[in-house]
Design goal:
The chain contains nine helices and nine strands. By secondary structure, the protein is α/β, with parallel strands linked by helices. The strands form two sheets. A six-stranded parallel sheet has the order 4-3-2-5-6-7, with helices on both faces. The protein has a three-stranded antiparallel sheet with strand order 1-8-9, with no helix packed on it.
């Protein structure tokens, strides 16, 4: 893909795994919550992990998946409070701030569009201090649909007026990229290095980036050539 920044008016960005290290979320849901639930219910940790992982998977691609109030009620735990216990793991991916600064400096409409619950957003934006870069933040819970639903991107127009043909989307979810593609969003990028603990894998369907800094042109240029190869990209000089 050749990205000509003059052809982009709007940049839509996911949060968890895309801008922020998903290690926090993976550790929290797969290790920390089962540990606390096991202690509360006096069951072995391995059994707790098996039961909770199955329960979590049952809510994938629904709004319940990221609804902290739902999980607090379902598990009998104060999920927002438990997040504070491991908030030191919340981190911004390398190159993100530089990319956000580039978008702002060049007049792009910049929106954070996430499935995250409002309580998660409050915690992470306070911790990372990246919220000021955006024109606004839209949660799937406001829209009433998760991004995995192909209707989401049309409903998003109620909050963000954008031309799909002049819009870029960055995501660590291929499912969400597919629904955006169905709606007609033109520039789609898969973030392969979604966690500091993962081994990046190139997408078979979408242009792959390891870090957003790959999309920043050489000074004085507005064009970037992106070649998917292990998440590496090269600039047009």
């Amino acid at each position: 893909m050749i990205l000509e920044w003059h052809d982009v008016d709007t940049v839509l960005l996911d949060m968890d795994g895309t801008l922020l290290d998903r290690h926090f979320d993976d550790h929290f849901w797969l290790e920390h919550v089962p540990k606390r639930w096991a202690a509360k219910n006096r069951v072995p940790l391995k059994l707790a992990q098996e039961q909770l992982h199955a329960l979590f998977r049952s809510q994938e691609q629904t709004l319940n998946w990221t609804n902290l109030d739902y999980w607090s009620d379902r598990l009998g735990l104060d999920i927002p409070l438990l997040k504070l216990e491991v908030e030191h793991l919340i981190a911004v991916h390398p190159g993100v701030v530089e990319f956000l600064a580039y978008c702002r400096q060049h007049g792009k409409q910049l929106w954070l569009v996430t499935n995250a619950h409002s309580k998660t957003l409050d915690l992470k934006l306070k911790k990372t201090r990246i919220g000021h870069w955006f024109d606004g933040v839209v949660s799937a819970h406001q829209v009433g649909l998760p991004k995995e639903d192909s209707r989401f991107w049309g409903e998003l127009q109620r909050f963000v007026r954008y031309d799909p043909d002049r819009t870029m989307l960055g995501e660590d979810s291929e499912t969400n990229l597919h629904t955006a593609q169905e709606y007609g969003i033109r520039y789609l990028f898969y973030i392969s290095h979604y966690s500091s603990t993962c081994t990046p894998v190139v997408s078979d369907s979408f242009v792959t980036l390891d870090y957003f800094s790959r999309l920043i042109p050489v000074e004085g240029q507005s064009t970037v050539r992106i070649a998917s190869s292990g998440g590496l990209c090269s600039h047009v000089i």
